[in-house]
Amino acid sequence: MITKTLNPPVGRSTLPFIDASHPDRPLAVNCYRPARHAPNDPVIVVQHGMLRNGDDYRDFWIDAAEKHNLLIVAPTFPDEPFPKAEGYNNGLVISGDGAIAPRADWLYAVPGRVLDALRAAGVIDKPVIRIFGHSAGGQFVHRMLATEGGALFEAAMASNPGWYTLPTLERRFPEGLGGLGLDPDALTRWFAYPMIIFAGNRDIVTSDPNLPAQPEALAQGPHRFGRAHFMLDFARAEASRLGVPCNWQLITVDGIGHDGAAMSRAAAAYWFEGGRIPSAEELGKQVEPVL
Prior knowledge:
CATH architecture: 3-Layer(aba) Sandwich
Structural class: alpha/beta
Shape: globular
Distance between the termini: 32 Å
Strand order of the largest sheet: 1-2-4-3-5-6-7-8
Number of domains: 1
Radius of gyration: 18 Å
Largest sheet: 8 strands, mixed
Order of helices and strands: EEEHHEHEHEHEHHEHH
Strand content: 15-25%
């Protein structure tokens, strides 16, 4: 049965979710709901990394949820029904035979349907909704904005993606947006959206086995921090060529590498503490990365 309503209890929860476009691929939605959260209080959608650990990413935001009265919603795509990068980061856009899948199959509309299920249950009404994704989730978020637009979200952060889909129709997806049936107006809308590329300046490891290393990714730079700068520079040049504004920005988090917990805390401070970026010490720099 397709999930039509979601009603998370107070505190942590993990709720099953069957998406209308993928009835044979079960998801989970990991939530944290403060006791005082009302339907028009803020909502943060969180996209997990490659480990498909939406429960961890939900938990990274709990302190901020209690402090700022945020509903945390982490749609979680298990690896078995949504395998590899093709089944999550790349949104099931490319089918097994290499062809572009029907748009109805793409995953980038799933967060919107999760929000619809929360609305149907009366959990949310018309709140300010933001979306944050780290690592593979950062790939998911910026590709979602490119293909679905940002109408659902007041703000969006792509944090430490391994590589980027470039805003051009001249290169085939996922390197660019070619082959998807998009037109130049779609690029203009993406450029107009105030997307934040959120980059830890210590995310400079080149030997990480999880760092995308195909030629298209390496062409963007040797590490994630360099690729963030490449993406913004490419976008500004392309927007200038088209004669349209580019409203993107790159925000650097000093002293932090590929750490989803620290980047989540930095994002919460930026959004809810007046644009503040805490120090690495305050963010709790970790020796081991959290993917």
